[in-house]
Design a protein that fits this description.
40% of the residues are buried. β1, α2 and β2 form a beta-alpha-beta unit. Strands 1, 2, 3, 4, 5, 6, 7, 8 and 9 form a nine-stranded parallel β-sheet that branches. The longest helix has 21 residues. This protein is of the alpha/beta class. The chain has nine helices and nine strands.
Length: 247
C-alpha cells in the first residue's frame, strides 16, 4: 500500500474509534512518527496531508528539519514533535527545532530547555509545548516520573506536582498534559488500565495544579492507539501503520 492509502486507513480507524467512544476525531492529533525515515519520506507524507511529525532523536530532528524546509519552504504548516527521552547535552537541539516535546521527566531538562528558549529568542513568542512523561507500568525500561502507585503514594503525587509547578513557572515552556507508554505484548486489559490511569492522573493534576493545562494526553502507538483513543488520548504517535517496518 502507498503512504497515502495507509494514512487514509489510519484516519478511518481514528474516526471510527472516536465515534464509538462519543468523541470527535478532530480532537485527536495524529503525530506521524518518522524516525529513521529520510526527509524525502516526510515530504511525501506532507503531500499526503500529514502535518504533525514525531522524531525520537534530537540530532535526527535537527538534521531532517532543514532538509524538509528546503523542499517545502518555511511555511509548510509542519509541527515538529520531539517524542523520545532527551539527554541533557542535547536540550539545545530540541529547544531550537521542536514545537512540542512529549518526554519531559526531569527538572534539569526543563531548566536547560527554558534557558535555551530564552537565549534563542523564542520565549513567549513561540514557546515549546510540553508533556510531562510518567511511568505508570513500573517497567524499568521505560522513562518518566515514577507514578506506578500514584493513587496511594503521596510522594509520587508531590513529585509530579513539583514538576508541574516548575513547567508553569519557567519561561518558554507551556504545559499541555501528560504522556505515557503502555507495556509491550501484554493483555488488552493491562494496556487499557495504563491509559485509563493516565486520564485519571491528568484529571487529578488539573485539580491540584489549576494554573497549568494538563488535560491533553499523549498515549497510544500503532498497536494500541485505538484503545488509547477510547480512554481519552488527544495525541497518538503512529509510524509503522503508515510507513511500514522501519528502515
Amino acid at each position: 500500500m502507498s503512504i497515502e492509502r495507509r494514512y487514509q486507513a489510519v484516519l478511518e480507524r481514528i474516526t471510527a474509534t472516536a465515534q464509538r467512544s462519543g468523541r470527535q476525531a478532530e480532537d485527536i492529533t495524529l503525530v506521524t512518527v518518522t524516525k529513521t525515515w529520510p526527509a524525502e519520506t516526510v515530504v511525501a507524507a506532507h503531500r499526503a496531508g500529514m502535518r504533525h511529525f514525531g522524531e525520537n532523536r534530537a540530532e535526527e530532528l535537527s538534521r531532517k528539519l532543514p532538509a524538509v524546509e528546503a523542499a517545502l519552504g518555511p511555511d509548510s504548516g509542519i509541527s515538529w514533535h520531539a517524542i523520545g527521552a532527551l539527554q541533557s547535552r542535547k536540550t539545545n537541539l530540541v529547544a531550537d527545532t521542536a514545537d512540542v516535546f512529549h518526554a519531559l521527566d526531569r527538572a534539569k531538562i526543563a531548566n536547560r530547555l527554558s534557558r535555551r528558549l530564552v537565549e534563542n529568542g523564542r520565549g513567549d513568542v513561540n514557546p515549546l509545548l510540553v508533556f510531562v512523561e510518567v511511568n505508570l507500568s513500573g517497567e524499568a525500561t521505560k522513562s518518566g516520573l515514577d507514578c506506578r502507585d500514584w493513587e496511594a503514594s503521596a510522594e509520587q503525587k508531590l513529585t509530579l506536582q513539583q514538576m508541574a509547578r516548575l513547567v508553569v513557572e519557567l519561561p518558554g515552556l507551556v504545559p499541555l498534559g501528560l504522556m505515557t507508554m503502555a507495556p509491550w505484548q501484554v493483555e488488552e486489559d493491562v494496556i487499557r488500565s495504563v491509559f485509563r490511569r493516565l486520564r485519571e492522573l491528568s484529571q487529578w493534576l488539573q485539580n491540584a495544579e489549576p494554573e497549568g493545562q494538563w488535560s491533553k494526553l499523549s498515549m497510544g502507538m500503532t498497536d494500541d492507539f485505538e484503545i488509547a483513543i477510547e480512554e481519552g488520548a488527544t495525541h497518538i504517535r503512529v509510524g509503522r501503520a503508515i510507513f511500514g517496518p522501519r528502515l
